[in-house]
Design goal:
Elements (H helix, E strand, L loop, with lengths): L6 E5 L3 H12 L3 E6 L15 E4 L5 H6 L7 E4 L4 H14 L4 E6 L5 H6 L3 E4 H14 L5
Parallel strand pairs: 1-2, 1-4, 2-3, 4-5, 5-6
């Protein structure tokens, strides 16, 4: 997938958000990362060429500071489903971000995200499928 010349906002700079921000930056995207904790930005690599904003991604003022309305893509990667849903809803419905992908832990919440036109990654299902596949393999000696 080609990411150069894309403008991407990542909300949440934990392990997942930082991993994605670092990879997207390396791939040539313009990346802005938002997190409420200034310590979270330590997760960004030395080679990260984007910007970071300390603030609450559920606040329109913070998203405006990140110029989220100009983003090609917004990733909601926090550890809280409610935060990710609110960020996704603001990005999609209010700011008109064309593509929004949100991390979800509770598989039952995926439906509400999809109703908003938000792509989801449910880490519970992804991990469950990986375990199931591993269980199906022959034991290694």
């Amino acid at each position: 997938m080609r990411f150069e010349s894309q403008y991407i906002v990542v909300v949440g700079c934990g392990r997942l958000g930082a991993y994605l921000a670092n990879r997207l930056s390396e791939a040539g995207s313009s990346v802005v990362v938002i997190d409420v904790s200034p310590d979270a930005f330590r997760n960004l690599s030395v080679g990260f060429s984007g910007f970071h904003i300390e603030g609450d991604g559920t606040e329109l003022g913070v998203l405006a500071q990140a110029k989220a309305e100009q983003a090609d893509l917004l990733l909601a990667t926090t550890r809280r489903d409610n935060v990710n849903l609110m960020v996704a809803q603001l990005a999609k419905s209010v700011l008109g971000v064309p593509r929004v992908i949100a991390r979800v832990f509770d598989p039952q919440r995926e439906e509400s995200y999809r109703g908003l036109g938000v792509d989801t990654i449910c880490s519970t299902i992804v991990a469950g499928q990986a375990f199931w596949e591993r269980l199906s393999e022959a034991p290694k000696s």
